[in-house]
Every structure is written in C-alpha cells, then in structure tokens.
Specification:
This protein is an alpha+beta fold. Helix content is 45%, strand content 16%. It folds into two domains: 82 residues, Phosphorylase Kinase, domain 1 (2-Layer Sandwich); 204 residues, Aminoglycoside phosphotransferase (APH), C-terminal lobe (Aminoglycoside 3'-phosphotransferase, Chain: A, domain 2, Alpha-Beta Complex). The model has no long low-confidence stretch (mean pLDDT 95).
Length: 330
C-alpha cells in the first residue's frame, strides 16, 4: 500500500524550495514565501541582495512543452531588451526544473523580479509608455515561429468552444445563454470579414491588465505570461481597452476620460508599430471572446470555482451587454 495518500494539487514547502534554489543557482541565504495559488503557484524568493519570483506550474494545466514555449518567448524578449520578467538560468544552464510532487511531476522556473508596483489609473506618461512597450513586445513576438503547443486565439477558442463550456453554468439563465449565442454569431460574422486576413499575428500576452505590469519611475515591466498564445496582436490592445471600458461600466472612470486614455495609449503604440483602423474597429468584438475565454477557463480550474457562481456570471454578462449596447454596430 502506498504510504502517501494521492493528491491532485499539493503545495510545495517554501523551506525546501529555498534549499533547492541555493543548490541550483548558488544563491546563499534564500528565503521563500508562497504568494498566490492559481494556474501555477507563485513564490517570492529573497536573498540578502535580490528578489526573484519562483513559478511552480501545475502539470494538469501546463505541459512541459508549453512551459518551454513560454520560456523561449521571454528569453527572446530579454535579448531584445523588451522589459519583461525573464527566466534565470541555473548553474547548469537550465531554466526549467522538474520536481516530483505528490501528484506527479511539476515544473519550476525562477524569474527576475518586476520592480515597482501596480498602477490602476495610469497618467499620460504611463499610458504612452505602456503603448510603446506593448508595441516593442509585438515587434519581437510577431517574428517568432509558433511552436503550436500554446493556445491559438481564434474564433473557435475564444467564442464557440467557450460558449459550449458555459452552457451548464448558465443552465439557470437560458435567456442570457441565448443572448450569448446570438452575440457570438454576430461577433464571428464581423471577425470573419475578408480584410481580417491581413491582420498582424504573433504571440499575444492576452492579459494586459494593470495587475500584470509594474511601474517604477519612468520604466515598466511586464509579467505573468500564463495565457500567452498565438493570434491577432490586436488582441493585446483589446485587453487594455476592455479594462478601460470596465472602469466606465463600474463608474470608476468617465467615458471621456477612458477615450482620452485609450488615445494616448494608442499614440504610444503607433509610434513604434503600425496598427490599422480595421484592426482597431474590431476591438469591441474581440472583447466578447476575451471574456468568454476566461469565463470558460474558470470552469476548469479549482482555484477559480467561485468565479463561475451566479453572482459573478451575472456581473460578467452584464458587462458584456454593456459592451455590445455601447460599442457594437446596431
């Protein structure tokens, strides 16, 4: 009989991880602290001189090839001096470590620390800087050949498949599900127009919300590439647009202020990478796919179960109705 009871998701000991980092990286006097559980577990690693972030991936949600693809992109960004948290090489030169946990293999990567802090309401300089650095990220991510083991962000993965997964979640609210079905068909038709074939493609972060980049003085650092995948690069512009739109919906920002912020952000982006009016016109339609993708993901992950409960789903769909009513063509 196996003396260890089976587990599907264990929490690795911070003390043992600190010893592992000292051994593998030659960093003395390490302290390790669990910060958050999620798609993977995030630990703060501190030595006497530096801070790092240790990510422990869940094999049920990220395979080794998927982790390798993320590392490849981040090392390319580091080489191009795009400000993003990057993997640190161990003494052996390896960046990914395989750990034997109770539930099986898990993968660990040590990242540089993103200095600064989250800023929810960006000033003009920060908006311009965000646009510029997102464009520089896309200049790199658009020229890397995809390994195809990460997500492909397309109509199937952002609209139709998530819609099917959400049917049980909305079983109590068939009217809302019917509305979503109709909206998905409308968005798919709009996003299938012939001129979309020329849209820029590459690796997208797909979660460029203020919680995923830090500002320090006149610099910015991106992090949390958990959902990086391949698709239209305008998806990343959409993620920030819908953040501003959500602030309007919740009353934290006026529509005029949001429009001005978006224009400054786009000015910074356009100074370093071209973006067509056709791509920008479809941003509100892409927003539906963003929310459906993450709502469907919540149904697959034990850490986000609460987000699939009626109160949360009602808020999400209420926001989507707002987006459609105020930003889609009638």
């Amino acid at each position: 009989m196996n003396p260890v009871f089976p587990a599907v998701y264990s929490t690795l000991c911070p003390v043992a991880l600190a010893s592992l980092i000292t051994e593998q990286y030659g960093i003395p006097h390490v302290q390790c602290k669990l910060l958050v559980r999620g798609v993977g577990d995030t630990y703060l690693v501190q030595s006497s001189q530096h801070r790092y972030i240790l990510r422990i991936y869940r094999s049920s949600h990220r395979s080794l090839p998927q982790v390798k693809e993320e590392v490849q992109l981040l090392l390319a960004l580091q080489q191009a001096q795009v400000p993003a948290s990057y993997p640190i090489s161990a003494i052996s030169g390896e960046t990914i470590h395989t750990l034997q946990a109770v539930e099986g293999e898990r993968y660990a990567v040590l990242f540089s620390y993103a200095p600064g802090q989250v800023v929810r309401n960006l000033d003009k300089n920060q908006l311009h800087l965000l646009g510029r650095e997102m464009a520089r990220f896309h200049n790199v991510s658009s020229i890397i050949s995809p390994a195809t083991v990460r997500w492909q962000y397309d109509l199937q993965t952002t609209l139709f498949i998530p819609l099917d997964k959400l049917q049980p979640v909305l079983a109590h609210d068939p009217d809302t599900y019917t509305w979503l079905q109709e909206s998905v068909e409308q968005a798919a038709k709009k996003l299938s127009q012939p001129n979309t074939a020329s849209f820029s493609k590459g690796y997208c972060h797909f979660d460029f919300l203020p919680k995923n980049f830090h500002f320090e003085g006149d610099s910015l650092t991106f992090f949390d590439f958990d959902f990086m995948g391949y698709g239209w690069l305008v998806n990343d512009i959409m993620t920030f647009w819908q953040h501003l739109t959500l602030d309007v919906f919740t009353g934290r920002m006026t529509r005029q202020t949001a429009d001005e912020a978006y224009a400054i952000f786009l000015e910074g982006y356009s100074a370093h990478r071209a973006i067509s009016e056709q791509e920008l016109t479809l941003v509100p339609y892409l927003s539906l796919g963003f929310w459906l993708f993450y709502m469907a993901f919540h149904t697959t992950h034990d850490q986000f179960y609460a987000f699939s409960q009626p109160a949360h789903v009602k808020f999400y769909t209420g926001f989507l109705r707002h987006v459609v009513d105020t930003n889609w063509e009638k």
